[in-house]
Design a protein that fits this description.
Helicase, Ruva Protein, domain 3, Flavoprotein, RsdA/BaiN/AoA(So)_Rossmann, 2 domains, 13 helices
């Protein structure tokens, strides 16, 4: 029986796993990579340490698509399967925090290296600097590249990524290819990305890092909240909690819906408890100005901003603060509000929300329902995950499933 000739478009996380699985299953595999080397986006994951999966990998950590589609994929190739796959390649995994799994080397390069060694061992053909421009459907497929080269195969796996981090390879070209094949694209928007605000005090706070509970608000309703280190910038806010909330913000802003983020700097205290603490503090240090009183309580550069947004005169004596003014201080510390005007662009986003509609993809094989022998894997599909290794797990899972079924 003749071997399947599989062309994999995109040498990122999902494409590399798909190639390895397909080759192990007897297929003749060619990878076409747009950039000068494979796995460039993998090298940037986990701040260069590669958070390759998460022990708490459940469907709730993923967005877009349908829950049934996501669950079917994760059941077929889960976290344990990922750990076994990379263990076989020589990766010793460690858990650092909140179920996040990294290679013991804490080097993303280790992941790329072992994948590359397996590709070499399996004699998979790798062509870099080959940007695919067209997929021609004849008896089989003819893939045309920007360099005027042609590649022939009877199965195609499109694993080009989304639009995030285009300098690392994902420039949205896969969506163009999918459209040419008749696929519907759910509007791609940046996710896991910093938020912009028009707050007037941002320049004063540039570089300030604080722990807080960030809540994304629409029409006075809390849509989601996340706790962690928040970074103020001259254009808005960043940090892990903000990235987690950014998908919602990006979606709402795209739909021209007003959105705000409220920050609670004292999440472990109720308003009443914080009010009593402030009253005791103001009373015991009544001769200090309100600015000096707050030193040691909150970040020093945040003090004047909190006082101003509370409508209190700077340098006012602590003993002269009224009950109403104290209530406003409590409100500012528990509900520090920023109007969100947008997000940063694709070059600063970690993942793409949106992509090929899951309704057009078989949720067991990842074969296109529109074009026989075309398979989809990775970020090009309308599924994206939270921070914490979920997006790489999606890449490994979809890559494995697409590679396995394309090679049957």
């Amino acid at each position: 029986m003749a071997k399947n000739k599989i062309i994999i478009i995109g040498g990122g996380a999902s494409g590399l796993v798909a190639a390895i699985v397909a080759a192990r299953n007897g297929a003749k595999v060619t990878i076409l990579e747009r950039k000068e080397r494979i796995g460039k986006k993998i090298l940037a994951t986990g701040n260069g340490r590669c958070n390759l999966t998460n022990l708490k990998c459940v469907s709730d950590a993923f967005h877009g698509g349908s829950e049934e589609f996501i669950n079917n994929i994760l059941k077929q190739f889960n976290t344990e399967d990922t750990l076994a796959f990379f263990s076989e390649l020589g990766i010793y995994p460690i858990e650092l925090e909140n179920g996040k799994i990294y290679p013991n080397s804490l080097q993303a390069g280790s992941i790329v290296d072992v994948l590359r060694m397996e590709i070499d061992r399996l004699k998979i053909k790798l062509e870099c600097n080959e940007e695919v421009m067209e997929i021609e459907q004849k008896n089989n497929f003819v893939v045309h590249t920007k360099n005027d080269n042609k590649y022939y195969g009877n199965r195609i796996i499109i694993s080009t990524g989304g639009k995030s981090s285009p300098d690392l390879g994902s420039n949205g070209s896969g969506f163009t290819l999918a459209k040419s094949l008749g696929h519907k694209i759910v509007k791609p928007i940046p996710s896991l990305v910093q938020m912009k605000s028009n707050a007037g005090f941002l320049k004063q706070l540039k570089g300030v890092k604080v722990n807080g509970l960030a809540k994304i608000i629409e029409d006075n309703k809390i849509l989601r909240e996340e706790y962690g280190e928040i970074l103020f910038t001259d254009y808005g806010i960043s940090g892990p909690p903000i990235l987690q909330l950014s998908r919602i913000a990006s979606t709402l802003i795209h739909d021209n819906i007003n959105v705000t983020v409220d920050i609670d700097f004292f999440r472990d205290m109720t308003n009443e408890q914080l009010d009593k603490m402030l009253m005791d503090r103001l009373t015991s240090m009544s001769n200090r100005t309100i600015q000096d009183n707050f030193i040691g309580l909150i970040n020093k550069r945040l003090i004047n901003v909190i006082i101003k947004v509370s409508g209190i005169q700077l340098n006012k004596k602590s003993g002269d603060i009224t009950r109403e003014e104290r209530a406003r201080l409590v409100n500012s510390l528990k509900k520090f509000t920023l109007n969100i005007t947008g997000t940063n662009q694709w070059n600063q986003s970690q993942v793409t929300a949106g992509g090929i509609s899951t309704s057009e993809i078989d949720n067991h094989t990842l074969e296109s329902k529109l074009v026989e022998n075309i398979f989809l894997a990775g970020e090009i599909i309308d599924v994206d995950g939270d921070c914490g290794g979920y997006n790489l797990q999606w890449a490994w899972s979809t890559g494995f499933i697409a590679g396995m079924n394309a090679s049957k």
